[in-house]
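Backbone shapes recur. Consider a single case.
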Amino acid sequence: MKSSPALYYRIASVLLVLFAVGHTLGFLQTDPQWGVDSLVASMRSIHFHVLGSNRTYWDFFAGFGFFVTAFLLFAAVLAWQLGGLSRETLRLLPVITWALAITFVVNTVLSVMYFFIFPIIFSVLITVCLILAAWLAGK
């Protein structure tokens, strides 16, 4: 059986949705064993004005977390759509196919530098799928 870009894009898409769900369910969670309760309380309670809005640092933290979720879901949709294109059409889109793959190479590096095992595993698997798909699309 020949490998096709479609298979790898569809696998990446499913992994991206799972990653987005896990990220959304997890990034707002804290464990009392971490000893960050007072820090989180400060992030939620200290308000400041920025460009006409009253915000907390927690608002920024949560907002950027939800941005990540939105972009993971966008990447899932994009990967799914790329998986539905013919190899001939994909061959005409190297900037898109490789930009998506390279973005996840960067995400993998950032996951290794700043996060823990689950985001690292998801990032590596997604990156491998996207690189294989982009490479096969260009053949």
About this structure: The chain has one domain: 5-138.
